[in-house]
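Project outcomes to date are best conveyed with an example. Our students and postdoctoral researchers have been running inverse folding experiments weekly, and each run begins with a structure described purely in tokens. The record below, which covers 467 residues, was selected by the lab manager from last quarter's runs and is presented without edits.
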């Protein structure tokens, strides 16, 4: 099949080169954006008196027919046509006749592909933001439903202090809220229209780029034609946002995996979201969170791949940049799937309240509170730290918790200790004393849940929608 750029060449492209350079198996998903962008460009050509209304009508009818053919699986793809843009243009010439050759006036595949990817990514990002909004709603609902459940908080994977499960869940709410904010901010730089910049220098034709942007609902147009066709920062930024988000999913997955073990037994994953062993009948494996944890590495790898690809490219467009779509599409698909599976799985998890509460009552999680108690009696914190450390060492030797030591034993470490220490070290009291803003007290967490619910309700109607 003759290439649309065949005029410069005296021999046909080698079949091996056609296969090697073709991107159609990857970029074919851009077809609705390519067609929509082409229709807008067609109307811009009419406005500039480059084509007539009648010619535009033929071109638009042809483009709409091509979209139906692709939608219905009737379109034939061929590696010799390289990419989705040449497929559509070639078919347009077949459908609409010679007038189809006029559509590419005042544009290049360089600004065309940049347009398509930006339009695709607008839709993808707005969809991911809505998914994350739903995930945040689920986390807040879980926190609200389990407001009184207690578990150990950890540092260095060692039991540290008792906390509310709801406080722990709300930590992930905050992470995913930041992810949403990053995507919202990223969307501002995605929502910039490059069409009309042509290959790199702009066009000699009197097109109205702002009119095209209005047709395609872009808020801004690119300011520099060289930058417009060579910029992939908007993809890199999205991949970075997605990578951070997947790190959050990986951390949550790691905790669910640990908590579902016999050693922790804090949760039971729903049977519908677990798998068994082909050899060990007793096994219930947390494959969903394990796969999400693994996929985080793939998304981070996609960011690294594109950063590495872009780092040495001179201006303007280079064919290397064709390779931007595979990591982009894979990241969108992966992140979308991970959010989706967690939205379904999280509400079905069962929390083992008694086991979590028991774990929060052992391991000297009250040590800091005992030091704080001594501070309230006038002792400097550093001195109190040493006193309690000695008490912990003694309790370990005697296989006791601090609250299990007798008053006489406790007073051997400091005569400031009274029998009111025992109530001071009750788990719920330790939690509810932590009333500092952002802390784990019941009142503080209830306030955080209420604020989150209000924020989510206000945000829902403001989430962007792109088609």
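After processing, the design step wrote out the following sequence:
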């Amino acid at each position: 099949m003759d290439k649309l750029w065949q005029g410069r060449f005296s021999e046909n492209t080698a079949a091996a080169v056609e296969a090697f350079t073709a991107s159609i198996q990857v970029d074919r998903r851009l077809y609705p954006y390519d067609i929509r962008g082409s229709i807008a460009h067609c109307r811009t050509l009419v406005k500039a008196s480059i084509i007539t209304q009648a010619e535009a009508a033929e071109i638009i009818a042809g483009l709409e027919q091509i979209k139906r053919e692709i939608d219905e699986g009737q379109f034939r793809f061929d590696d010799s046509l390289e990419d989705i843009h040449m497929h559509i243009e070639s078919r347009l010439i077949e459908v609409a006749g010679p007038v189809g050759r006029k559509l590419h006036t005042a544009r290049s595949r360089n600004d065309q592909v940049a347009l398509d990817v930006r339009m695709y990514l607008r839709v993808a990002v707005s969809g991911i933001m809505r998914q994350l909004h739903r995930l945040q709603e689920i986390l807040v609902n879980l926190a609200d439903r389990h407001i009184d459940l207690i578990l150990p908080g950890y540092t260095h994977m060692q039991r540290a202090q008792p906390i509310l499960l709801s406080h722990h869940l709300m930590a992930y709410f905050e992470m995913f809220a930041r992810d949403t904010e990053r995507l919202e901010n990223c969307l501002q730089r995605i929502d910039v229209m490059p069409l009309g910049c042509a290959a790199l220098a702009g066009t000699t034709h009197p097109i109205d780029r702002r009119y095209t942007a209005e047709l395609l609902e872009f808020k801004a147009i690119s300011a520099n034609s060289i930058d417009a066709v060579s910029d992939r920062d908007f993809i890199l930024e999205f991949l970075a946002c997605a990578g951070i988000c997947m790190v959050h999913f990986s951390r949550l997955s790691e905790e669910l995996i640990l908590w579902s073990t016999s050693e922790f037994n804090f949760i039971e994953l729903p049977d519908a979201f677990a798998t068994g062993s082909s050899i060990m009948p007793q096994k219930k494996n947390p494959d969903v969170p394990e796969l999400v944890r693994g996929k985080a590495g793939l998304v981070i790898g996609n960011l690294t791949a594109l950063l590495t690809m872009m780092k040495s490219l001179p201006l303007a467009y280079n064919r290397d940049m064709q390779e931007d779509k595979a990591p982009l599409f894979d990241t969108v698909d992966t992140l979308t799937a991970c959010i989706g599976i967690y939205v379904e799985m999280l509400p079905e998890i069962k929390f083992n309240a008694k086991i979590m509460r028991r774990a929060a009552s052992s391991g000297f999680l009250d040590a800091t509170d005992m030091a704080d108690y001594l501070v309230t009696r006038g002792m400097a914190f550093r001195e109190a730290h040493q006193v309690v450390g000695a008490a912990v060492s003694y309790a370990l030797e005697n296989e006791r918790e601090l609250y299990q030591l007798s008053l006489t034993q406790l007073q051997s470490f400091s005569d400031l200790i009274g029998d009111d220490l025992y109530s001071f070290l009750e788990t719920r009291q330790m939690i509810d004393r932590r009333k500092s803003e952002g802390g784990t007290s019941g009142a503080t967490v209830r306030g955080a849940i209420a604020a989150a619910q209000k924020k989510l309700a206000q945000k829902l109607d403001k989430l962007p929608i792109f088609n």
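The beta strands are 150-155, 158-164, 192-193, 220-221, 267-268, 350-351. The chain has a mean pLDDT of 96. The training component of this project remains on track.
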